[in-house]
Amino acid sequence: MSAPELSRMIKPRALPPGEMAIEASEVERAALAARFGITALPALSARVSFEPKGEAVIARGSLAASVEQPCAVSREDFVYEVAEEFELRFVPASAPAAHEADEEFELSSDDLDEIEYEGEALDIGEAIAQELGLAIDPYREGPDADRVRAAKGIESDEDRKPSGPLAEALAALKK
């Protein structure tokens, strides 16, 4: 496995006090852009605070990024802003999961966004990169999408009317 493009190792036994600011370098942003298949990542920053919770560490924060990628319709590059809040739970890989012994279980909010780590440190940078990856919309349309559709005679999603038995049944339910 290759090294993460954005790595910020944190030792759970020595969590940083208050809020930690993370700013991705130009090299890190270029590597992340390549990883996510976008044109460029002009900016990426995050703010994170940590809270120990037994063997786990709760990381709460937000990320902000400028993303440049091709429009899904025109294929012309455009830039848009991403702002995401996150809450992650880091647990040592050796810690048993609460539901491990159960044959059937339901996920609760405590089970979501849980990240296992090995060794003496967790990588908040890689977790932020993963959050960014989830926030990038590969089918996002740029400002010229409607113009290109019109020029090519393609209907926009808003112009299309659903059809078929399912659409008729849903329309009947709305009445």
Automatic annotation (TrEMBL):
Location of region: Disordered: 139-166
Biased composition (Basic and acidic residues): 139-162
Pfam families from the UniProt entry: YceD
Entry-linked InterPro entries: YceD
Protein name per UniProt: DUF177 domain-containing protein
